[in-house]
Amino acid sequence: MPRALRAAVPLAIAVLLGISGPGRGESALRPGLFASWRIDLLSEGRRSEELFSVTVAEEVEAGLWRLDLERGDGAGSYRILYRSGGPAPAFDRTRIVEMHALDGNAWTPMDPSELVLLDRVRDMELSLAGAEELGDTLVQIREGGPLKCRRLGLEREGESVQEGESVRLRTHWKVTGEVWTSPEVPLGAWVRYREERVTKKFSEFGGQVFEGEAQASLTEWSLEILRLP
User: Fold this and answer.
1) Which pLDDT does position 86 carry in this prediction?
2) Structural domain tally of the chain?
3) Sign of the alpha-carbon torsion through 109, 113, 118, 122
4) If exposure means fewest CB atoms within 10 Å of the residue's CB, which of 11, 26, 32, 45 is most exposed?
């Protein structure tokens, strides 16, 4: 069976943060740990950049952690109570017991669904189901490296369908990329993540099929700083 088709089977999560799974990094949680990533996005010819950092503040009780999240350039500060352990993805919403956003000088309760970035990290982890092992390698980061990493290859594709009264819309997508993970890195273990996605839409109307232009996007996460307590 072609590798692309093998990767398209229903996603199954590997053991979270355990060395036996490709993602996670939960075993690295300890107070004082800090990690910061740069996120580069290229879509429809437009490039954007974002910074995202996690600080492990304290273990409130066994398996319950207070994490401080920051988005760069004043995009947002967040504080969450996070439940570790179990098979769920590192940033699955079921792990977030409580979440607050900084509003001026006050912490205001918020729904985790409002921070789309968390869903994106969860989806990144899920994408590793069926990833191809490409061997171990050393990756040098700007502050805190080098890190011994597992290198994984991504290749998967799928299709979604929307049915209307007279029009049927099919959206076909294909993802290729590479991922580097290290158990030293918290909450997903990402050292680098590079994903190229190509999407094409097909409209079926009156027995005819109209094919849209392919749309490509590129997402790259790069760990820049890792400070261990």
Assistant:
1) 83
2) 1
3) positive
4) 45
